[in-house]
Amino acid sequence: MSQRYDVIVIGAGPAGYIAAIRAAQLGFKVACVEKWISPAGEPALGGTCLNVGCIPSKALLASSEEFDKASHHLHEHGITVQGVSVDVARMVARKDGIVSKMTKGIEFLFRKNKITWLKGHGRVAGSADGWYRVEVTGSAPAEVEVSETRNLIIATGSKARHLPALPVDNQRICDNEGALAFTEVPARLGVIGAGVIGLELGSVWRRLGSRVTVLEAMPGFLAACDEAVAKECWKIFTRQGLDIQLGVKIGEVDTSGTTIKLPYVDAKGAAAVLEVDRLIVSVGRVPNTTDLGLETLGLVPDERGFIEVDDHCRTRLPGVFAIGDVVRGPMLAHKGEDEGVMVAELIAGQQPHIDYNCIPWVIYTSPEIAWVGRTEQQLKAEGREYKTGQFPFAANGRALGMQATEGFVKVLADARTDEVLGVHIIAATASDLIAEAAVAMEFKASAEDIARVCHPHPSMSEVMREAALATDRRALNM
User: Fold this and answer.
1) Domain 3-159+286-354 belongs in CATH node 1.10.486.10
2) Which residue among the candidates 72, 73, 77, 457 is catalytic per the annotation?
């Protein structure tokens, strides 16, 4: 006799485990399927984000920033440090410890909320009488557990996109997983792709001593960002030492020798060869929607692997939802979390809603890049009349004290109503500062609303207020 649940979630990344927890809070009997195995050989919750994505990469970014400060910047504070060195093994062990603590924390939350963890690979095996059948295969093929549910949530996340000409072995040629587990600092590091992952991981190893070259096929840099932000970031990152080549065409990699040789043609048509010790491939991600048995329900992903859903993540089948990286929209952990909450509340008969225009983006370089809402180029393309205000951190007392003066806040507001349409930040603390902008936009605030709110002094947040004031040419400190 199969076990029956009110809700089964396939996938325990941020979208899936949050959906499971919220459903359990609402009184449902919930199970969550997850097959992830940690490097130690143990089952683990948290998906890509906690195991080989957001959390471990930010741990290494923090470690590399501390090394960079000690090596190059503490003397400006009157602090003399000699003999600074990197213990990569210890740095990676610290990262692994943080990952383990976080994944164990989700296990605790599952126990607290009485969520059943079905360990293994989940596949849909059809439906009958309003019940969806899910088969979970454990570590041994013969270990198959069958469960049924009225409500099914697909939250299987995504995986790194690979290129045929660049075979990833996660030893010499790596995706995000291998790039987080280097045992030493490569003297020369190549990065394919100047997107979020490429810039973050390239930054980590550059600060630790690698000579980093980034090859990008697109002719523009950070096309998703506001143009003012992209231009400023280009200046900062190239000044830091990242060699970024745009508009390149990559040839077939040669790994026969002790180094990796990658021929390419640059934007001007000149042939060149990149020779490196390690190569990171970061050319986007693809949804994990193969081998899920969705065809048994007649639910076939599109040609890119995405599951079609409406604005509330409903598929065309009653009681079947899809959230996170397997559906349209940005592949962001917090976007998946919000969708998980929304779906659980829909199942409970509530009426939740997500404004996708108010989901913030962050790139955790140094300085960080964050934005929410429309870019200036998008507003121009839409023909919308707007006004803009910008204020630099170089004029902020707290930023000067922290030695974090690079960057600015840019506020875009409707020319007639003053409603905030977009906020774009380059700053050491952009990932935290952007939250104020997201809240303001959720409540349809005006630039005047932000400008009238008292911000603490001295603080980095004052730059947000000054940028809002600047939309009306009223900045007080410039």
Assistant:
1) no
2) 457
